[in-house]
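Late entry, written up from scratch paper. The run itself happened at the end of the previous shift, but nothing got recorded in the book at the time, so transcribing now.
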Amino acid sequence: MNKPLAVVIMAAGKGTRMKNPDMAKVMYQINGKPMIEHVVDLACNLQARETVVIVGWQKDSVIEHLVATSKGVKCVEQSPQLGTGHAVMQAELPLRDFNGDVLVLSGDVPMLRTATVNELLEIHEQQHASATVLTAVLEDASGYGRIVRNKDSDVVGIVEHKDATEEQRAIREINSGIYVFEKSMLFEGLRQVTPNNIQKEYYLTDVFDYFWKKRCKVSAIAAKNPQEIQGINTVQQLEEARILMAAPSS
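Output as recorded:
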């Protein structure tokens, strides 16, 4: 990729379903190292100019580990934690001198491959998109946000399952929550996001409404293996990821 890349990793969540309030979710280990380190390694493999980790719950343990293992990573606290959009807003100041694309990753998605993200970045650049979404096609997409495309295959909607029509629920392509943005458009869009929802949170996906109003191009590419985009939210999912990541690559 010719365009400079910054990576923002969301790692502030509490992870209540892991049933251990004394441990940050992203510090659970897979193959001998915490989930967050796998994601930071991905950023390193992508030769990111800047890597910003958004910390929050049990932040000290996350910061201490990254200081010891990952050179050049900047940690920024999200407090209070007011949603995914609010998390990414915290990266604006650390990236004030950066110009290029911003890849948004989640600290609890450790199975994502470098090759998959390189394909995402390539499509983003080829199509001159303001944003590009990594998606997956599932046999059963229940519960996931659906990707709505137009006849040109551009993304024109991301509809949550609960808000989807029957026709939209038949769509099997889902939003992974992994995105690449043109930096200036990302933070311009985030400034338009408001917490007008029941949770009173700032949702990152709300920036797309701003993009579509501005007639900005939003592209998408599906991961070849949907397991790559699996987030770790429960102890069972953690064990499944340990098995998958311990298996030799084919």
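The two ends are 26 Å apart (CA to CA).
(Scratch paper discarded after transcription.)
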